[in-house]
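Help wanted!
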Amino acid sequence: MTTSFYNLLEGVMRLYKLLPDGRRQIVGFALPGDFLGMTSSSRHNFSADAIGPVVVCRFSRAPFARFIDDKPHLLRRINELAVRELGQAQDHMVLLGRRSAEEKVATFLVGWRDRLAALGGKTTTVPLPMSRQDIADYLGLTIETVSRTFTKLDRDGVIEILPGGISLLDPARAEALAAA
Amino acid sequence: MTTSFYNLLEGVMRLYKLLPDGRRQIVGFALPGDFLGMTSSSRHNFSADAIGPVVVCRFSRAPFARFIDDKPHLLRRINELAVRELGQAQDHMVLLGRRSAEEKVATFLVGWRDRLAALGGKTTTVPLPMSRQDIADYLGLTIETVSRTFTKLDRDGVIEILPGGISLLDPARAEALAAA
DNA sequence: CGAATCGTTGAAAGCAGTCAACTAGGGTGG
DNA sequence: CCACCCTAGTTGACTGCTTTCAACGATTCG
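Answered by r_m:
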């Protein structure tokens, strides 16, 4: 596995791991600006693929490592990035281990909105380029449970289901469900 | 939170996060040689405490950061550590999101045995210094489910429950359940 | 010897999973 | 143009794994 480092410039990617029997856990979604490839270096079946068209900036591993050696400043930056990702991973463990389906979905929607907002988008309408199966595999649920929970949040007036996304009708209530 | 870095020299610690309502997720156990404090720097309620007596080597954050700046070599080491932890975190996400209670417990026992073995211990008898509640909060289960699963594995001849630990009677079967 | 804590076990409930049918778009080819 | 199919998503009925509630046993400690 001669993987490389990537900088995602445009599009959305899913990062996941597979069990031998096919069960999948998506460990994260990547958005433009995200840095990929740190973790795939270590052993284990780690995969990433695009959701829709993407533009990436690819760095061969070895040359990149050499390049970094000369720039301790850059290494620090990489390190901060790894630590941030580690923190996000820990947050996600809390979600997977200790939250209900409704909390999971609400947390996902609010978090996804915030990430898109940070890239400079509107905050009420939230596009969801990934499939329900992707969301299910990210939240440790089944596709049916995700669908039912979306419907419930819609009926409750928290969100409105739109083609290709949702609208956060009641952000406060959604954030309450996501309360960390 | 002026936390510091720590190097655990002796003993066992639990690292966890709490939800506002008290739900707890243990994100990892630390053993001698483990490096703590990278993630607690970032915001969020992150806690760590000792399971039994511990000996740690403490580094104040600021001086340590300055010290590192002069040693790019050391920074690389730290970075590798962070990446390794990130990989473990991803493995644990798979466990929390996609595995059954029995698989979770078996995976935990095999993994814990391997970590102890790496520190130079026997491999058949596995001491478990943490409580059932700790194990439950690590695996995203309840204490009752953990207890029942232990009992089941015992009845099935996979393990033998001992005071303060277990014996891996059938490592092959346990590893099959933990199959990653 | 209680009192307290930890762990185990049982019975019942509930949340999410499974199985299956149905709907809605979207693309293709006749 | 429309019939057809294929995929994604929704919904329903039911199952079942894990949780919840509760009692009991074991060990420790004051």
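OP: Thanks! One thing I noticed: The first strand of chain B starts at residue 5 and ends at 18.
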